[in-house]
Design goal:
eight-stranded mixed β-sheet, single chain, globular, alpha/beta, Rossmann fold
C-alpha cells in the first residue's frame, strides 16, 4: 500500500498511523521528553505502537510527570524512564551502561534534548553547556549505544519480524533551520570555550550545525549499518521558551514575547523564508507541538528514507537543499567527528 504524502500540517499521530507497521515491535530511545515539548509528543505517539519507548531527562520529577502522562493516555504502553544528563560525560556513560544491560535491542535512537539558550557556562568537563548538551553528549551516547543498535538488525532477522525484518537501525538528530544563520562549528571553541567570544544564539546555531554534520558522518562511517538523519522540526512554541535560563536572552531583545517576535523577524528577512509577496513560507510559520513532532517520526521510521542516509528533513520531507553548505560538507563533518572523538577521549569504531 502506498504511503500518504506528508507536509507542514501533518501531525505525529497521522505519521504514526501511516507508519504503524514500521513502528510495531520496535524499541526506541528518545531524549528530552519533558511535558509540552516535541520529544514528549513523539514518545506519547510512539507508545501506542512501539514495543518499548525509553524516555529520558535529567530531572527525576519531570521525567516521572512525563511517564505518568503517557501512561494515562496509553495505559498499555511499555515506557521505561532513564535519568540522563547530557551535559556530563560521566552521566552519559552511566546512562548508556544501564541501557546496554536492557534485554531488548535498540532500533532507533532519537536525539531531541537541547540545552536552553543561556549565559556562558562550563560543564563539569570544562565544555560549553549548549555544545556539550546538544552535540558532545549525544555523540558519546551514540558511540556507546552503537553495538546495541547494530544488534537490533541481527535480532530482527533472526526473529523474521514482519514486515520490515531488514530494518536498518536509525539515529535521528533534531537540528534546526537556525543552523543556516550561523557560520558553522568553530572547532577551536569546541575544544577551548571562550567566554569573550560567546553568544548564546550563535552557540545554538553551531550546535544545530553539529547535529546535521553528525548525521552525515555517522551514516557514512557505519557503512550502511546505521542510517542517520537530521531535521528541522519547525518554529514551535514549546517549554524551551519558558525555561528560566533562556529568559535573559529573550529579555535582551526587549521582553519575553517581544523577544521571540524580534528574533523571528530577523530570521524571516533571510533569503528563502519569505514568499514572493512577502508572506512567511511554511518554513517559518508557527507549528503546533503535534505538527513539530511529525518530522521526528518520519526521520525515525519512514521507509522512503531507506536509501537516503544522512538526509536533512523539513516538513516531513527530504530537503537537503535547505541545509547550509557549512552543515552539509562531508569533509567538515569528518573534522567535527575527529575533534569530538578527541574531546570524549574515545574512538567511535564499528
Amino acid at each position: 500500500m502506498a504511503l500518504p504524502a506528508f507536509s507542514f500540517a501533518t501531525t505525529a499521530d497521522e505519521v504514526a498511523e501511516a507508519l504503524a507497521s514500521e513502528i510495531q515491535g520496535k524499541n526506541v530511545l528518545i531524549t528530552g521528553t519533558s511535558l509540552n515539548g516535541i520529544g514528549f509528543e513523539a514518545a506519547r505517539v510512539l507508545a501506542r505502537h512501539a514495543n518499548l519507548v525509553i524516555i529520558t531527562g535529567h530531572d527525576a520529577d519531570r521525567l516521572k510527570l512525563a511517564e505518568d502522562a503517557i501512561l494515562r493516555d496509553v495505559p498499555s504502553a511499555n515506557i521505561r524512564p532513564l535519568l540522563l544528563d547530557l551535559s556530563s560525560l560521566d552521566a552519559v556513560r552511566k546512562a548508556a551502561g544501564e541501557v546496554n544491560v536492557y534485554p531488548e535491542p535498540l532500533d532507533v535512537l532519537i536525539h531531541n534534548a537541547a540545552a536552553p539558550h543561556c549565559a556562558f557556562k562550563l560543564t563539569v568537563d570544562g565544555l560549553e553547556t549548549q555544545m556539550a548538551t546538544d552535540h558532545i553528549g549525544p555523540f558519546l551516547l551514540t558511540k556507546l549505544l552503537a553495538p546495541k543498535l547494530l544488534a537490533s538488525a541481527a535480532a530482527a532477522v533472526a526473529a523474521s519480524v514482519s514486515p520490515s525484518f531488514n530494518f536498518v537501525p536509525r539515529v535521528v538528530f533534531v537540528s534546526s533551520q537556525g543552523h543556516t544563520y550561523g557560520t558553522g562549528v568553530d572547532l577551536s571553541a569546541l575544544v577551548r570555550p571562550n567566554a569573550e567570544k560567546y553568544r548564546s544564539f550563535d552557540a545554538y546555531f553551531q550546535a544545530k550545525s553539529a547535529n546535521a554534520l553528525s548525521a552525515i558522518a555517522l551514516s557514512r562511517r557505519s557503512g550502511g549499518r546505521i542510517n542517520a538523519y537530521s531535521l528541522h522540526p519547525g518554529a514551535i512554541y514549546t517549554n524551551m521558551y519558558t525555561k528560566k535560563e533562556s529568559l535573559p536572552d529573550m529579555q535582551a531583545f526587549g521582553g519575553f514575547r517581544a523577544g521571540i517576535q524580534v528574533l523571528l523577524a530577523q530570521l524571516t528577512r533571510r533569503a528563502g523564508i519569505l514568499g514572493p509577496n512577502g508572506e512567511p513560507t511554511d518554513n517559518f510559520k508557527w507549528k503546533t507541538i503535534p505538527q513539530g513532532a511529525a518530522t521526528i517520526l518520519v526521520a525515525a521510521f519512514d521507509p522512503r528514507l531507506n536509501d537516503k542516509p544522512g538526509a536533512y528533513l523539513v516538513n516531513c520531507n527530504e530537503a537537503n537543499e535547505e541545509r547550509a553548505p557549512h552543515s552539509s560538507d562531508p569533509a567538515v563533518a569528518e573534522d567535527l567527528w575527529r575533534v569530538t572523538e578527541e574531546i570524549i577521549g574515545e574512538q567511535f569504531a564499528f
